[in-house]
Amino acid sequence: MHVDHHDHENLSLLRFNALWEDNYRHDSLLVFSTGRSPTLYKELRKEKPMLTPDITIMSVGTEITYGYSMVPDDGWVEVLNQKWGQNIVREEASKFSELKLQSETELRPHKVSFYVDKVKAQTVTKELSEILKQRGVLNGGIDLDILPQGAGKGQALAYLLKKFKSEGKLPTNTLVCGDSGNDAELFSIPDVYGVMVSNAQEELLQWHAENAKDNPKIIHATERCAAGIIQAIGDFNLGPSTSPRDVTDFSDSELENVNPGHDVVKFYLFYERWRCAQVENCETYLASVKASYYTAGVYVHPSGVELSLNDGLNELRKSYGDKKGKQFQVWVDRVLATQIGADTWLVKFDRWESFGYELPAIVDSFPITQNFRLMVIRRGSLGCTCTIHGWKDSEQKIIRFGLEVLQVMVNQK
């Protein structure tokens, strides 16, 4: 995922988050590929509103993990072990005075990283590659990452696609996105769509000009970072490309197919705008929402606190505009809807709130929609567990409200 560090309100990421959870989470795989080590990647997730990917490729393609728990891919480890010897790498690299070993967090099982003067980087890389008979990957001109032969972002993706094919689950379409030189190999994978975001570095643009300028499946977006990904989805006609965050009037947005996840995303956008006074304080609208609910519905907060939906709606009235003028943002992650009856779905998701400079506070809230009746399953009735985790950094406070469980019933009006 491309994080725009110049976008202090994280609008591009939040737009992508809403689009993904609304339209793609249920039948697509989100893969993050980064040169960062697990330590730096986890630090970034504490600072930015990033979704939980289905697959994470880290350390310049040398580590592949799955899901929220980041379970390692043992098969990829075996592949890399075939042509690798970290002790040999360290021994040979120590002979170059130009190289300074990076911190321990950046020394991974299949990656040894050094700082090197930009002027000397090319010469050192060439000599080390010849000595080790392996491949050195240059990142940004000042960092040198030594990897096993056959490792890298592109090779990791090729491995995954081959694995999916062997399991009979090859994706219909694959879109890769990049902004730096070590992303070039992602665009070399056959049959993938590719987007270089508008803020792509010169080394990637040069690679494109020399190797792929006539490839219609690779474009240079006019939008930065995550917004460039949204643009590419639309340009390649890969699916819906209008983020729910770009919709100002949800009453005009109708669904062709039943999608409980859509209503979860839509409600929490309304909830954010309601508390920021970005929508009209309309009692008529809230009354119509209340009338559409299953009257015996109960909302169960991840902390275990239970609240009837009627009481919750009344509480929502009191919170109108209480975040006005503040950087208050809400997003949902890992939205999973499972149909458990003819007109009933079980929806699980994580809800996050960012409070900017304001101290975080747990808020009793509840999902509402116009197209569905919602009833929260009482915690424990289906063996569900709920947890609360909180993170914060020097610039903003982010809290994860944990797993929320909903039962969604089609409105039979």
From TrEMBL:
Similarity-based family: Belongs to the sucrose phosphatase family.
Biological process according to GO: sucrose biosynthetic process
GO molecular function: magnesium ion binding; sucrose-phosphate phosphatase activity
Cofactor(s) this protein cannot do without: Mg(2+)
EC numbers, comma separated: 3.1.3.24
Pathway: Glycan biosynthesis; sucrose biosynthesis; sucrose from D-fructose 6-phosphate and UDP-alpha-D-glucose: step 2/2
Annotated catalysed reactions: sucrose 6(F)-phosphate + H2O = sucrose + phosphate
Sucrose phosphatase-like domain mapped to chain residues: 7-237
Positions of the Sucrose-phosphatase C-terminal domain: 260-362
PANTHER family: SUCROSE-PHOSPHATASE 2-RELATED
Species name: Acer yangbiense
Keywords, ordered alphabetically: Hydrolase, Magnesium
Description of how the protein assembles with itself and partners: Homodimer.
Alphabetized Gene3D superfamilies for the sequence: 3.10.450.50, 3.90.1070.10, HAD superfamily/HAD-like (3.40.50.1000)
Protein name (Swiss-Prot/TrEMBL): Sucrose-phosphatase
Summary of the function given for this chain in its UniProt record: Catalyzes the final step of sucrose synthesis.
